[in-house]
Amino acid sequence: MITSAVRTLATELTGDDLPAYVYDLPALRTHARAVRDALPPGLELYYAAKANPAPPVLRTLAPHVTGYEVASGGEVEHVRAAVPGAPLAFGGPGKTEGELRRALTLGVERFHVESEQELRLLAGAAKDAGLDAVDVLLRVNVPLASDELGGAALAMGGRPSPFGLDPEAVQRCLPLLSGAGSRGPLRLRGIHAHLASGLDAPAQLTVAAAIADWARKLSERHGLDELTEVNVGGGMGVDYAHPDRRFDWAAYGKGMADLALRHPGRTLRIEPGRALTVYCGWYVTEVLDIKHSGGEAFAVLRGGTHHIRTPATKQHDQPFQVLPMDTTATWTRPWARPAVRKEPVTLVGQLCTPKDVLARRVRVPELRAGDRVAFAMAGAYAWNISHHDFLMHPRPGFHYLDT
Ligand SMILES: *Cc1c(COP(=O)(O)O)cnc(C)c1O
């Protein structure tokens, strides 16, 4: 449900102020606090900045997270500047030598290493910088038995993947790390895995247990006393078809507390992105036109998927709420206000491509030119994954509500 602060702004903005992204920071704060409170105190919560790196979002999360997971040199610089002093974990494939050197200069706390070459590049950069204890987590494609998730689809991990290291490659990395018999500038502090996304709490717990068990076996087999951290990744599911059905953080927190008891002396860490910030953002716009074609109704909205690519990427209907605008007094055009009633309508944007669809054949009681539409769940992987410059329409406004 739309919050009253968002609704008020969404109806007060004038047409030329639209589209607009409206972020409800108090709602984000409440949600982040509830997530943190549901987790066991020893579990570390990092926010995956790529989900939404807007500085007000990063800063609102700061009191509720342990740190931030960053996945490029750009994110390292950006997050360092937005939340100075917050611990960073630098992951992501294809880190360049320049990015690694810069990250060392900026004192990045953890490196999630994705390949053997990357490990060698990091070791060289650390040596050149005169550092002797750079903390590394190896990102591993921990094998999962296919029945372990009860049929849930795995997006990553346990299958051929450009991300992370296969178990055999981990063996080859060990001699390059101190704590594993040799002495070098890199310390093996832990194992990182991000195997799947969109999982519910029971499936996430199964994955977390498999990763923690794998890390324990590796550490026991090779006497890796400094391997005390297990980062089990993000990917907590959100349901775009049912915005009110949220990830069960309470059940997940209980399960992670049990897992921690089975792994004494190890720090467990998670790094969700989407499930933290998706609910706080709204993409608000207005209906420009209503038309029929081939017997179907279309509502053409100001803006489109160049601002919110999420429904095109995920092939879903972006959830929304209609905010009816009474323009009877202000409708000055000498023709009837275009409208559609009690029939399915497809919500499209202003782009000259059939892919510019925000929601398909959805039922609304009524939709008229001039009505506002507030798309929900636009707080993650929305603006920042969109191809803004396609067709050169104006950019949306950005409003960070904080009262
Ligand atoms: C994208 C990503 C995350 C966050 O995933 P969400 O689905 O947004 O929770 C966490 N870790 C890694 C390595 C990622 O690539």
Automatic annotation (TrEMBL):
GO terms for molecular function: diaminopimelate decarboxylase activity. Residues 21-379 form the Orn/DAP/Arg decarboxylase 2 C-terminal domain. InterPro entries: Ala_racemase/Decarboxylase_C, De-COase2_C, De-COase2_CS, De-COase2_N, Orn/DAP/Arg_de-COase, Orn_de-COase, PLP-binding_barrel. The keyword S-adenosyl-L-methionine does not apply. The keyword Manganese does not apply. Its cofactor is pyridoxal 5'-phosphate. Residues 28-277 form the Orn/DAP/Arg decarboxylase 2 N-terminal domain. Keywords: Pyridoxal phosphate. It comes from the Bacteria. This is Orn/DAP/Arg decarboxylase 2. It comes from Streptomyces malaysiensis. The lineage of its organism: Bacteria, Bacillati, Actinomycetota, Actinomycetes, Kitasatosporales.
